[in-house]
Design goal:
Shape: globular
CATH topology of the domain at 8-24 and 32-136 and 380-401: Thrombin, subunit H
Protein name: Pyrrolo-quinoline quinone repeat domain-containing protein
Oligomer: single chain
Domain Pyrrolo-quinoline quinone repeat: 70-325
Organism: Fimbriiglobus ruber
Strand order of the largest sheet: 1-32-31-30
Strand content: 35-45%
Number of helices: 1
CATH architecture of the domain at 8-24 and 32-136 and 380-401: Beta Barrel
Helix content: under 10%
Pfam families: PQQ_2
Length: 401
């Protein structure tokens, strides 16, 4: 059985874009005037990135003041609301956020959302009708991560994969059409990281690995049955591991919240093994996912005391050695998007959008503009537009000049 990952051309149909690597093929040039706001709309509480597919924008949010969540669809061109479908959830409170944090995944006429309390729901993209729903943490008797669910669903073939956590359910796969449980595995607490695909052994294996990070290790799983193809231990993270693994050529870069970053290489063959390529103990992504170019890695690392600040660090992808660092690009977070013409779009936690030269020998900012209020999201880029959200609104701005 050949499983094909879900991607949709120039759309942004899932977490970190078409290839789940924080990249777009679109070119972005420096702007002279602030990018024009084309439309904006009020949505409920949450920090999930909008998903863009087939002319629609999908936003997952909490209904204000209620223990309910909703998926909302907008026309990508005009911002007109097309539908919204709400459902009940278990009570949840947090000092950080009380709404969905996982990005919806869109495949064909299906939208998959994973709420902050672990309710996994499949909707019809056209109508908003609920197709099926599973309260994963209730069904599997699992405990929520400290900061709630952040794992964005990964669809490959007829399976949708998420991290739950707990005995026998660290990683779980459901049937995309019925919501039936396909397989479950591993016994350790899940992290708040999202999975990615990695073709270990190059083209010698028909089924790519699904790479998950738990609080204890990074693992490559067979999406057909959940069997472990390879694993690599990580420093224990009691609060979970938030950054998504970055696939860059034959390397997988893993970054923890406070215990540094490690690049691993997976050997080719039917029984691959994972080996350390390099390690940078002082390079911790906290809860921001980085981006990689052909030879560089860009990560946001945090200094929490005496005053919180987020530093942008550029390192050599082969060695892990620091090329340059720009201090205080934000307080806690920076969402990065790699463009198709050697630049990076950076959205900080105050809603400031910056365009930098990703090829320069030092930090080189080309332009900047404020596009939204305080946010913890990574933006979506599709059709010459950037879609971002803050605590209450989704905003669409024009990037193409």
């Amino acid at each position: 059985m050949l499983l094909v990952p879900a991607t949709m051309g120039a759309d942004w149909p899932q977490w970190l874009g078409p290839k789940r690597d924080g990249g777009t093929t679109e070119t972005v040039e420096p702007w002279k005037d602030a990018p024009k706001t084309l439309w904006k709309a009020k949505v409920g509480v949450g920090f999930s990135t909008p998903a863009v597919a087939n002319g629609r924008v999908f936003v997952h949010a909490r209904v204000n003041g209620k223990e309910r969540e909703e998926m909302i669809a907008f026309d990508a061109e005009t911002g007109k609301e097309l539908w919204r479908t709400a459902y009940d959830r278990a009570p949840y409170s947090s000092v950080l956020n009380t709404g969905p944090q996982a990005t919806p995944t869109v495949v064909g006429d299906r939208v998959y959302g994973f709420g902050i309390t672990g309710v996994l729901t499949c909707f019809e993209a056209e109508s908003g009708k609920q197709v099926w729903q599973v309260d994963t943490f209730k069904k599997l008797e699992a405990s929520l991560p400290r900061f709630g669910v952040c794992c964005s669903p990964l669809v490959i073939g007829n399976r949708v994969l998420v991290a739950v956590g707990g005995k026998g359910s660290s990683v779980v796969a459901f049937d995309t059409e019925s919501g039936e449980l396909e397989w479950q595995g591993l016994d350790e607490p899940a992290s708040t990281s999202s999975p990615v695909l990695f073709a270990s052994g190059g083209k010698s294996r028909a089924v790519p690995d699904v790479v998950f990070m738990t609080t204890l290790r990074v693992i490559g799983l067979n999406p057909l049955d959940g069997s472990v193809n390879w694993e690599f231990p990580l420093p224990y993270q009691p609060s979970g591991t938030a950054p998504t693994p970055i696939v860059a050529g034959d390397q997988i870069i893993t970054s923890t919240m406070t215990n540094g970053s490690t690049a691993i290489r997976v050997t080719a063959g039917e029984k691959p093994t994972a080996e350390k390529a390099w390690q940078a103990k002082g390079l911790s992504g906290y809860f921001s996912s980085g981006a990689a170019t052909k030879d560089r890695l860009f990560l946001v690392t945090n200094v929490l005391k005496p005053v919180p600040r987020a530093d942008l660090v550029c390192v050599d992808l082969t060695t892990g050695k620091e090329a340059w660092k720009k201090e205080a690009v934000g307080y806690f977070h920076f969402g990065a998007v790699r463009t198709g013409n050697g630049k990076l779009l950076l959205l900080d936690d105050m809603g400031n959008l910056k365009l930098i030269d990703a090829t320069a020998s030092e930090y080189r900012e080309l332009c900047s503009a404020k596009v939204c209020d305080g946010t913890l999201v990574t933006p979506a880029v599709a059709g010459g537009r950037l879609y971002a959200r803050d605590a209450e609104r989704i905003v669409c701005v024009q990037l193409a000049q």
